[in-house]
Amino acid sequence: MVEMRVFGLTIDQESKSPIVVLRERDGETLLPVWVGAVEAMAVSLALNNEALPRPLTHDLMLLSFRALKAKLLRVEISDLREGVFYAMLLLEGREGRVRVDCRPSDAIALAVRAQAPIMVAEEVLRRAAAWEEHKKSPRAEMPVPDAATDMLRQAGAQKEADLLGGRLLREGSLPPEEEADEERFRELLRSLEPTSRRKM
């Protein structure tokens, strides 16, 4: 496995999903990982050493590990299938070492907070590079962001669709100067097609 560190955060210009960019600790290899908005915020807070009055979810997990006399040894991004990353936590406690399946976004947020190594399988790096090449094809789809990002996207689209739908119900149609809104409304409805058919 290759040890990596968080190089920075950015936004995918097409999907508007946050991306955590990992960089090889002793090299130049980069790995973009699509994450949810909440996890991106959690990583950003940890990178900037922001102190909060109450623990957030990832802080709570680390506090729970410590209370149970367990330690996060490292996180591993172990697989990439159909644009979806898979990760594991390696914990050590009283009963020995255990591996816990988790989303890579949570794994990274925990690793940054615990200052634990982020390890990535070489096969994942190879597949990710191949996926980046595949994305350049006109028919290629973007990697699927994690469930949190998709839920936020759907909630925002649903809210806007409800507002435009209410206006259409009250007025029967949109005013001529807002015809663009009517097309946007149709696009929003199309975007709300269930995404559960895609693997997350």
Spatial gap, N to C terminus: 24 Å
For the report, how would you describe the main beta sheet? Answer: 7 strands, mixed
Number of domains: 2
Q: Name the helicity range.
A: 40-55%
Shape: globular
Please name the fourth-level CATH homologous superfamily of the largest domain.
Bifunctional nuclease domain
The CATH topology of the largest domain is given as Bifunctional nuclease domain
Number of strands: 7
Region (Disordered): 166-200
Biased composition (Low complexity): 166-175
Organism: Desulfovibrio legallii
Protein name: BFN domain-containing protein
Keywords:
single chain, 200 residues, alpha+beta, Bifunctional nuclease domain, globular, BFN domain-containing protein, nuclease activity
Describe the protein's architecture and organization.
With 200 residues, the protein is an alpha+beta fold. The chain folds into two domains: 2-144, Bifunctional nuclease domain (Roll); 149-197, no CATH class. The protein is 42% helix and 26% strand. It has six helices and seven strands, in the order E-E-E-H-H-E-E-E-H-E-H-H-H. The protein has helices at residues 37-47, 57-67, 104-114, 122-135, 147-171, 179-191; strands spanning 2-11, 18-24, 30-34, 71-81, 84-93, 96-102, 118-120. Strands 3-2-1-7-4-5-6 form a seven-stranded mixed beta sheet. The longest helix is centred in the C-terminal third of the chain and has 25 residues, at 147-171. It is globular, with a radius of gyration of 20 Å. The two termini are 24 Å apart. The model is unreliable at 137-149 and 193-200 (pLDDT under 50). GO terms for molecular function: nuclease activity. It comes from Desulfovibrio legallii.
